[in-house]
Amino acid sequence: MLKPVQKKSLSDSVFEQLRAEIISGRMEPGSTLPGERVLCEMLEVNRGAVREALKRLEQARLVSVQHGGSTTVLNFRETAGTDLLSTLLVTPEGELDTQVARSVMEMRSALASDIARLCAKRGREVAGPLAEVVEQMGANRKDLVALQALSLSFWGLLVEASGNVAYQLAFNSLRDSYARFSHLLTRVLADELTDLKNYKAICEAIAAGEAEDAEFYSRDLMEIGERQIVRVLDTLDRVKE
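-> structure tokens emitted (241 positions)
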């Protein structure tokens, strides 16, 4: 239910409340939002805050705003982009959405392998910087927090060298989603983060221009982490039953 806005950025609060109502399905696709004046009264904010929030909802492709007319809720599964993933990972009740988390992991594995494949074809010059990151990972092998940061640097170099801007943007969304739970995933991903053999193999495959090998070792590395996270998600699902 909508409620009076707490004292922080008014437009942010309005945006977050309306977004939550839309994502939860309480405001169904095809339904019409209350008019600006009504929203102002319900949320106890000024019209400027409401207009700014509606503009952001439209930019996120959650609503369609008719100039001088009504605002219609869209089906975000058909219209929104990957930047919504970090929001979808948490339910309106504040719990992790395990189905969305599984989707993110599948996307992560698929992207990583193809990014490495393209990098071996287009960005072999990045092999040196990648090897330097892996060397730092070896020096910090017992520091999982440091390994998390270095792993993100590793994949950041890879995706940039792949030359695929769509993958770059998808990677940004995945990184933002990961950031929300990184402190909880440190130990879960320990086996993946410390698997320097696969990291080194990816570097060597890229340096040699061996696209299939780069794809293989990247997929193997991602599957290590995916198996661990799926086990955790399965446990969470059993607890909810």
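The chain has two domains: 10-80, 84-240.
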